[in-house]
Each structure stands twice: as structure tokens, then as C-alpha cells.
Amino acid sequence: MSTAIRTEGLGKKYRRRWALTDCTLDVPAGRVVGLVGPNGAGKSTLLNLAVGMLAPTDGSIEVLGGRPAQDAAQLAKVGFVAQDTPTYAGLSVADHLRMGARLNPGWDDTIARERIEHLGLDPKMKAGRLSGGQRAQLALTLGIAKRPELLILDEPVASLDPLARREFLQDLMGAVAEHGLSVVLSSHLVSDVERVCDYLIVLVDSRVRIADDMEALLASHHRLTGPRRDTSTLPADQQVISASHTDRQTTLLVRTDQPILDPSWTVSQPSLEDIVLAYLRGSTTSDTRPALEVLR
Predict the structure, then answer these.
(1) Which residues are CB-contacts of 264 (< 8 A; sequence separation ≥ 6)?
(2) 167-191 pLDDT, tens digit each
(3) Residue limits of the ABC transporter domain (predicted)?
(4) Taking the mean position of all CA atoms in its chain, how far away is CA 209?
(5) How far is it, in rounded angstroms, from Cα 26 to Cα 28?
(6) Closest C-alpha among 187, 189, 196, 151 to residue 169
(7) Residue 289 banded pLDDT, cuts 50, 70, 90
(8) Which DSSP string corresponds to 200-218?
(9) Which CATH entry fits the domain spanning 3-205: 3.40.1260.10, 1.25.40.180, 3.40.50.300, 3.40.50.1970?
(10) Model's pTM, two decimal places?
(11) Structural domain spans, the chain
């Protein structure tokens, strides 16, 4: 299976508001895919469609070659950790593992118990007494022990402190390496995505703006700084993603697979955050503050 998630013209409407529009994607299998976008961009809607918790209004979606949640076999292929890393406050850690074993035919109790021991969680402790980081790790354990082919994580570390977030992501990468999982990780923190992902999708205003290999994105984007000029005079192969101007200077972020040959430009490498913010803005104004506020 070369594709984990495939969508064609996918859309979801809530009454009069479209939460996702004309989404066409081929999310590769065997990768750790980062899904980035501002609040309200459609990230959670896309992931809930992928796990079968929502039905499309328009278009189609396939997950691992089948319709989401179409039967027990399809459900067993996908693990899901929702945005609030759901656990049951009144149940103990051991209760959660027993519940996972009863609900999932492919449950691997050895993996579950080894992870709980590694994390130092007391099996008798109620989930309501765990820290936010511990609850997130428990939810991740349930998702991994299900032995899915695809693990979908919707902002699982959004409420965690930096240390807990780093530990969660390190454990996630260990699980990917050990079990060969395909992963889709939604986050509004570009630094987290850059740390663990090798493929990037950016959603803005419910539409896909980027879907590409991380290394290819970094290699094909360039920051150009030089004398002020009209962007319409650039070569046709240079797609302008963002532009800012002073009286004498122009600064551009462009995408191209060709070398920059114009000697009047000073060429530098933008960071992944620079690239993502430029696509989030989708404009050519010199004020960058609104773009920064989108992610922070």
C-alpha cells in the first residue's frame, strides 16, 4: 500500500459553513506526515473524516484502500488519538489496557505493558490523577498497542509543557521505528513537525496549500533580497509565495526547482517556519505580524 489516505474533492459542510473544501490529497504510506494550519483551517475535520467519525458532504476519501470505518477490519487498521488525548478519569491505567484488549482484536498486551512500565505509570492509578503528559502517553500507548497500520494524532501535545511534548514526540518516533507505522500528526507548532515529520501538508481556509516531501520543500524555496523591482518581471519558473518591499529593497520567498541566476539577488535558505508562514498568509504585504500570530 503506497498511499495511506487518498481524497478527491473532499468537502465537509456544517449547516452553512464549509469546514473543508475541495481537498484532493495523496498522503503517502510509511511516512510521518505533518498536518499544519491555523485554527479553523480544517485539520481536525480532515482527520475525523479519515477515521470515520464524520461522513463527507462532497467528494471521497479512502484510508489504506478502504472506506473509513466501513467494517471491523478497516477499524483495526487505524489508531486515533484525538485532540484532547481522551482518557477516562475514573478508570485506572490497568482498566484502560483491559478495555483496549477487549475492543481491539489485534491488541498487543506485551507492547502496552512494556510501555506503561517504561513510562513509570502505576497501573492502579486513576487516569484523572495523571498529569497532562502522562495522559497523553497513555492515549498514545492505547493507539500503538492496537497495532494499527496508520496512527492518526490530532494535536496530541497542544496542551503539554515543552519537556512533556518533547518526551511524547521522542516516544512516538521510537514507536515508528520499532513498529513501522504510518503516522499523520496534526499540529500548530512548526517546530514539532520539523522535529519528527518527513512530509508536510499545509491547510489554509479549508484548502490544501502544500503537500510535499519536507526535504523537497526546503530545497525548492529561496529567499531573494535585492533592489526593489516588480515581481512580474521574474522568470516564469519562479513562483512568488510572499513579497515585501521598502523604498529601495524587495524581499521575496519564491519556489523554483531551477537555480537563481540573477546576480542582483542575494539568495538565502528560509527555515521551514518561514515557508509555512508565507503560505499561511497567502499575501504579498510587508507586515509579517499577522502570520506569526496565526501559529502562536
Answers:
(1) 226, 227
(2) 889 989 998 998 889 999 998 889 8
(3) 5-230
(4) 13
(5) 6
(6) 196
(7) very low
(8) EEEEETTEEEEEEEHHHHH
(9) 3.40.50.300
(10) 0.88
(11) 3-205, 216-295
